[in-house]
């Protein structure tokens, strides 16, 4: 025997409101339509749904059991409606974000946290990668957004790129580093101290090679490599090592006062941090919301970072 789910929902509404007329108003139906549904349900099960002659209406034991299922169906229907509404508006869903490690750890993760405060029903799944891995993940549908610096090696028309922040790299060190006391830094000064190598595959690695060429040396003394952002900061803070980092990453750590900008002006890459997406691919509203949240966060940050950058007295 198969019962009509709508009949069970209407039965539950009648018992919960105490009358057919109020149930009809609740469900947006006519009273006669609800009465017909109840009669059809009784005919289907060949059992009465209500105790005869009782006012307000009182269900028979079988009628009460069926009403329990009707309430469950109604609740499931409402949850489904809320899920659809949440998905369409971007208030619910899953967003998969991949990004370059240092930027994700220093800046984007905090923005994701503030986004979660606004949209607590959205789940964000984050992964790491450089440009080749992120473009492959976007093409395979494994991520929705890529947070990556891009310069002359743009992946092409298959991708949309929205710039968040112009790129600027600096040499970072601890606040009490001996070079911070030099009145005027020379290129040879940078070779007298150990260095931290950028992560393998990071664009910072090519930037470091460009710095080597600009100061006329073939290699630096690399004493640490392969670490996360936190481990790099810990190494810098506890040693006299130097590292090439994005200015914005050091800016994001300014309140900790563990790493600072060494005011030596180094060659700058033609590169910007931005959001990379697959052009023409279906876009979920939740992913759009997160992308706009990050864009607005950088709108506020860009001017503050620029002021801090302008305050540095750069030397050569």
TrEMBL record:
<dbReference type="Pfam" id="PF03466">
    <property type="entry name" value="LysR_substrate"/>
</dbReference>
<dbReference type="Pfam" id="PF00126">
    <property type="entry name" value="HTH_1"/>
</dbReference>
<feature type="domain" description="HTH lysR-type">
    <location>
        <begin position="3"/>
        <end position="60"/>
    </location>
</feature>
<dbReference type="InterPro" id="IPR050950">
    <property type="entry name" value="HTH-type_LysR_regulators"/>
</dbReference>
<dbReference type="GO" id="GO:0005829">
    <property type="term" value="C:cytosol"/>
</dbReference>
<dbReference type="GO" id="GO:0003700">
    <property type="term" value="F:DNA-binding transcription factor activity"/>
</dbReference>
<dbReference type="InterPro" id="IPR036388">
    <property type="entry name" value="WH-like_DNA-bd_sf"/>
</dbReference>
<dbReference type="GO" id="GO:0003677">
    <property type="term" value="F:DNA binding"/>
</dbReference>
<keyword id="KW-0238">DNA-binding</keyword>
<protein>
    <submittedName>
        <fullName>LysR family transcriptional regulator</fullName>
    </submittedName>
</protein>
<comment type="similarity">
    <text>Belongs to the LysR transcriptional regulatory family.</text>
</comment>
<keyword id="KW-0805">Transcription regulation</keyword>
<dbReference type="InterPro" id="IPR005119">
    <property type="entry name" value="LysR_subst-bd"/>
</dbReference>
<dbReference type="InterPro" id="IPR036390">
    <property type="entry name" value="WH_DNA-bd_sf"/>
</dbReference>
<keyword id="KW-0804">Transcription</keyword>
<dbReference type="InterPro" id="IPR000847">
    <property type="entry name" value="LysR_HTH_N"/>
</dbReference>
